[in-house]
Amino acid sequence: MQALVIDDSRAMRLVLNRMLVELGCEVEEAANGREALDRLGHGFAPEFMLVDWNMPEMSGIEFVEAVRQPPYSSTSRLVMVTTETEAAQVMRALEAGADEYVMKPFTKESISEKLALLGLEP
Amino acid sequence: MTVAAEDFELVRSLVLERSAIALDGKEYLVEARLAPLVEREGLGSVADLARLLRSGSARLSDEVVEAMTTNETSFFRDVHPFEALRTSIMPSLLDANGRVDLWSAGAATGQEAYSIALMVAEHFPSRPGISILATDLSRAVLERAKAGVFTQMEVNRGLPAALLVKYFERSGREWCLRPQVRSQVTFKQLNLVGSLASVPPMDIIMLRNVLIYFEPAVKKQVLDKVARVLRPGGYLFLGSAETTYGVHDGFERLELGRAICYRKTREGTSCP
């Protein structure tokens, strides 16, 4: 199962990458929304993406809004993984097109259980 | 923190005597579960705690048994049983009987029972006659469950984000389940090793990751009693690593989608 981790923190990408590899995924990384859109524009279609909220160049929420619209119209599952913990932020992400939401800090179980809810069991 | 052999033995025999839960070889569990209690009591180590237990502190004995019988859990744990309940079992029982009585045995902090209540609120909102009973050995854990207040770490575990924003209210770093859902669940202290006479007949019994703690003979006794509580045609769910096979021959295995559950065989509820 292919995954894309989008986070501007190299340390966080490393943590998520390691967790997903342990769950049996093949993992690619992007440092912000713009970089992730570039990858998708070149035909990369992961089954799911883990998306940070606060990133330079293009934030996670801007990425989620963009990726659900043409020309991308991505059907990949989108999971926000973020320090934003207000109910209003969770709602905004879901309305924009995110499928699930994980609040930092989290464990490997938090990620695998959310993926299972989406029918993704690596 | 490490646990000395004689201290582990003290905790092991206390817990076995009071709850029939076998901790053999589970030193790690004693360390993990007693660390918060050690801290709360202002002690330095499990050895300090063991010293107070030996001096005969009844209150601390209770606290240790409670700490050792509490489970770490998540909402919608293992997903598939809840899918089977939503798509198949609940609709067919409601159509056939007009009511469903469900029991979450070993309810811990309430995530399993509340997952069912959330599922009912979402998918069967106008159907009366659905009752949810949640029991646990530990009174302290039940008090927490009843309050319906969960930490951020807990709501991160298996709870769909859409249900979080719809049915929980954020209060500081905690999330409070709305009373409309909370009130769907009745909580009651119960020792599965004792009498189940106070438990009414049930259509669905969730006995997940509970038997795992018992010795084989006690597992069979508990399943005997559970079989008597389960109505004919009812469904028993065990943990994903548990089975009735080789323990009790009064049940047959049934696969519903990717979920596995058990129903009573026609011959009866018990074997000699």
How does this structure look, described?
The complex is a heterodimer of chains A (122) and B (272). By secondary structure, chain A is an alpha/beta fold. In chain A, 41% of the residues lie in helices and 20% in strands. Chain A has helices at 10-22, 33-41, 60-67, 87-96, 108-117; strands at residues 2-6, 26-30, 48-51, 77-82, 100-103. In chain A, strands 2-1-3-4-5 form a five-stranded parallel beta sheet, with helices on both faces. In chain A, 39% of the residues are buried. Chain B folds into two domains: 5-68, no CATH class; 80-264, 3-Layer(aba) Sandwich (Rossmann fold), CATH 3.40.50. Chain B has helices at 5-19, 27-40, 46-54, 58-68, 80-97, 111-123, 139-147, 152-155, 161-167, 179-182, 216-229, and strands at residues 100-105, 130-136, 149-151, 168-171, 174-177, 185-189, 202-207, 230-238, 251-256, 259-264. The mean pLDDT of chain B is 90. Chain A binds chain B through residues 85-87, 90-91, 93-94, 98, 100-103, 105-107, 109-110, 113-114, 116-117, and chain B through 74, 76-79, 152-153, 155-158, 160-162, 164-165, 168-170, 173.
